[in-house]
Amino acid sequence: MLTDLTISELGARFRSGEATSTEATRAYLARVDALDSELRAFLTVTREQALAQAADADARFRAGQPLGPLDGVPVALKDVLCTRGVRTTCGSKILEHFVPPYDATAVTRLLDAGAVLLGKLNMDEFAMGSSTEHSAFFPTRNPWDLDRVPGGSSGGAAAAVAARLAAATLGTDTGGSIRQPAAFCGTVGFKPTYGRVSRYGLIAFASSLDQIGPFTRSVEDAALVLGTIAGVDPMDSTSVDVPVPDYRADLARGIEGLRIGIPAEYFIDGMDPEVETGVRAAIATLERLGARTEPVSLPHTEYGLAAYYLIAPAEASSNLARYDGVKYGLRSPGGKDLIDMYSRTRAAGFGDEVKRRVMLGTYALSAGYYDAYYGQAQRVRTLLARDFAQAFERVDVIAAPTTPGVAFKFGERAEPLQMYLNDIFAVPVNLAGLPGVSVPAGFTAGGLPIGLQLIGRAFDEATLLRTAHAYEQATEWRARKPALGADR
Ligand code: GLN
User: Would you say the CB of residue 103 lies under 6 angstroms from ligand 1?
Assistant: First the structure.
């Protein structure tokens, strides 16, 4: 089936003429029609646009002039990325009818590479959450067990790749929102170094933490997508002008002699024993492949969550001030004056979790508490970054679990702190600005995916991809697929 192929396999079929982009696009759209009423990964399906883009790609292949490895490949996007002429909701009522007049830079780069856009994917409102239960529209289901969450906030993007509703998707990771849903859905999820991918056109949550990255079914595909979207952009002054290597070229070099650090702080009491066993087995596989492992210490890990849940809401409270009913988005009627209109609009347009973050962030930034909360959290952030810097003096890569547990049931983490605890192994990487990837590392006895997290030096995505690829090639996990619809 065309929908089972990786990007590189699909590209080979297009080049040989065995298949066309139109056939692949129709096959994906048919799967969306058949399965998405159950999974609910998509918020918007861009059927006509997809078929038109596929026809253009077919013409390029017929003329012998394809654009590159992504030409004609059907992809979909987390609905936090602006798409010109296509509704972009950010999972929120306040942007339910927002149609951006421009594309995010990452989207422009995908489209310029010939990718076919199938649609926009569900997410927690404003990317705040770990389950998609905070979507203002509906939750997405985990393809491996429909009673469980796919993770979040990029739950739609992870579920779509796992269920073969798109060849690859883009998500965003502010505090784990690519890696955690990738772990829960058994896909590859790659969070680049802060500054590697332009944030222009990414609806901001926490600007000093947000990064865009791919969900794919193989590490090689992650290399292809990352290579397409990465690189400096004049529209984002925090994007960094360092060369983007050919990530695929280096993949097969192996990991003989690579030094991998194992942080004791990432194997904690109370974590799911099956996750610990799975990740330890993955580390043993890395050793068999020639890597040398050694213990490293990241002593400030335990303060990561507290620092993150002050810094991220503080930045969010400022970023979300723009949704006031004046410039764009929802405006609630009946306000007696301007302030009343603001209040009604924000009361109606934002969900509970967003309101909680805005209040937390506003409080943390208020004059009397600024230094005690926000200032202190920033100092902890520096200590966390220093922990990693010290570890990377001795090792090339850090290996750890992506999450302390596997996909949970709907409603099981309704209490906010319970939900936040999910992000414990993810947020330090964002606070330090480093690249991280989650790769499938087996399944529990109950058939739920486990994620291995690999963390790298800033701008050293190449070593992470090479390590993840070597691991993937030594395991069978990539071949497993969830049984859905007629496959059940
Ligand atoms: N789950 C985290 C939060 O709710 C991370 C979200 C993200 O990475 N966008 O803030």
Answer: no
Q: With contact defined as beta carbons under 8 Å apart, do 316 and 206 qualify?
A: yes
Q: Ligand 1 centre from 168 Cα, in Å?
A: 21
Interior/surface letters 260-274, b for 16+ CB within 10 angstroms, e for the rest: bbbbebbbeeebbeb
CB 354 within 8 A of CB 320: yes
Burial 7-45 (b: 16+ CB within 10 A, else e): bebbbebbeeeebbbbbbbbbbbebbeebbeebbbbbbb
For residues 398 and 296, the answer to whether their CB atoms sit within 8 Å is yes
Dump pLDDT digits (tens) for 435-450. 999 999 999 999 999 9
Residue 385 burial class via C-beta count within 10 angstroms: exposed 0-12, middle 13-18, buried 19 and up: middle
What separation in Å is there between the alpha carbon of 202 and the centre of ligand 1?
A: 15
Residue 220 CB coordination number (10 Å):
23
Distance 177 CA to ligand 1 centre (A): 5
Q: Are the C-beta atoms of residues 123 and 141 closer than 8 Å to each other? A: no
Mutate to test the pocket of ligand 1, among 211, 413, 423, 453 (most ligand atoms within 8 A of CB): 423
Instruction: Dump pLDDT digits (tens) for 369-423.
Output: 999 999 999 999 999 999 999 999 999 999 999 999 999 999 999 998 889 999 9
Contact 78, 156 (CB under 8 A): yes
| 110 touches 198 (CB < 8 A) | no
The reported pLDDT for the residue numbered 76 is 99
SS3 state at 379? helix
166, 122 Cβ separation under 8 angstroms? no
The token duo for 64 is 């012998």
Could you read off the pLDDT of 222-264 as tens digits, one per residue? 999 999 999 999 999 999 999 999 999 999 999 999 999 999 9
Q: What domains sit in the chain, N to C, each tagged with a CATH number?
A: 2-257 (3.90.1300.10)
Band of residue 485 on the pLDDT scale cut at 50, 70, 90: confident
Amino acid code (one letter) for 375: G
CA distances from 162 to 22, 215, 226, 227, 342 (A): 21, 9, 19, 22, 40
- pLDDT tens profile 335-353: 999 999 999 999 999 999 9
- Kindly state the average pLDDT of the residues 151-156: 98
